[in-house]
Hints:
Blueprint: E1 9-10, E2 13-21, H1 35-55, H2 65-68, E3 72-80, E4 86-93, H3 97-105, H4 109-116, H5 130-140, H6 155-170, H7 175-181, H8 187-197, H9 199-214, H10 229-240, H11 252-257, H12 259-265, E5 303-311, H13 314-322, E6 338-344, H14 346-351, H15 356-359, H16 364-368, H17 401-405, E7 415-421, H18 438-449, E8 453-455
Antiparallel strand pairs: 1-2, 2-4, 3-4, 5-7, 5-8, 6-7
Helix pairs in contact: 1-9, 4-10, 8-9
Amino acid sequence: xxxxxxxxxxxxxxxxxxxxxxxxxxxxxxxxxxxxxxxxxxxxxxxxxxxxxxxxxxxxxxxxxxxxxxxxxxxxxxxxxxxxxxxxxxxxxxxxxxxxxxxxxxxxxxxxxxxxxxxxxxxxxxxxxxxxxxxxxxxxxxxxxxxxxxxxxxxxxxxxxxxxxxxxxxxxxxxxxxxxxxxxxxxxxxxxxxxxxxxxxxxxxxxxxxxxxxxxxxxxxxxxxxxxxxxxxxxxxxxxxxxxxxxxxxxxxxxxxxxxxxxxxxxxxxxxxxxxxxxxxxxxxxxxxxxxxxxxxxxxxxxxxxxxxxxxxxxxxxxxxxxxxxxxxxxxxxxxxxxxxxxxxxxxxxxxxxxxxxxxxxxxxxxxxxxxxxxxxxxxxxxxxxxxxxxxxxxxxxxxxxxxxxxxxxxxxxxxxxxxxxxxxxxxxxxxxxxxxxxxxxxxxxxxxxxxxxxx
Length: 456
């Protein structure tokens, strides 16, 4: 099976490391400017612009693109020299990989397009779907062998603690009351408020940012259809967040003095096409209880049971699954009042013989498993997997008392059958013969046992 590359994480803080080969040859503008030369020039300029905005500017009328996602703790970009130079990205963020990658794709994707368009095989974030972009990220991702984070604090935590410290320092009112009222402000909303409160200084900052980015336009010419210039223009428009987008916004004198820069900045850039409808589905091919709940109305669900099963014989297990008849989504209530469906664990798919190529198409978070992702899900300390209460072996235990006493290790579970009943009953224990689910459990256990599947 192909090696599964995934982000390391610690207390909910995750790492992402990418390595992308830099394109060979020259950019479509100057024969003397290679993609590596352009990349170095652009990263140096962007780093200087960011340092000025953070260390010199008195106010903050524009939110950095990286700041907008409110998840990115830090990131580094570096060119690694070699026979074919590569671009290395290392980032730390405060949430699981999948939701973070959606924020990388949009809104941070426009900024990354300016940089990574210089790399071979890069999929433009601003012009492609999220699945396509995610596939490229996975193909360029490399494992981090050791990952350390000073704490599990999120960006929101850091902002909250900064506000707590500021309110205590200012002491203009009871700080505890101000802290209780504090809600972190959206970075873009905060920037718009600053621009409204201090328009003169905001214009100065905006002109400086626009002029600095426009100096890079020679490396990203905008005079060609589908040329690289659209990457820089799109990123600039996003960074300046609608500022001075219409003729006349800056007044006659500034409009005249900056006519060249503003004409470039206001160039229309094609947006990402609307995604195709990928959510169409056939209810007859979806098990009940997934899209909508079981029962309801005249047939409310009153009882339920999970059957945890282990595969001993893959061929027999395939026959057992093939004969299984789960209830379809939106179907009529079963005659016996018992809704049934079936699910596989990641181990179960492999143990029943699903080909590796098909297994690899499942979401990576499923293939990694909840136990390995516990830190990302908030299962820490008392909720850590080592402290999970494991299910008891409660179906016809073997004569081996030690085996019967041991709980079910979750890695043993290959198949989960879910039963739901709308038949009234006073008891709750499905092991009791009089329970409305007991007879069905016994039937499934016998059928599974004859097919090489064991009910644990």
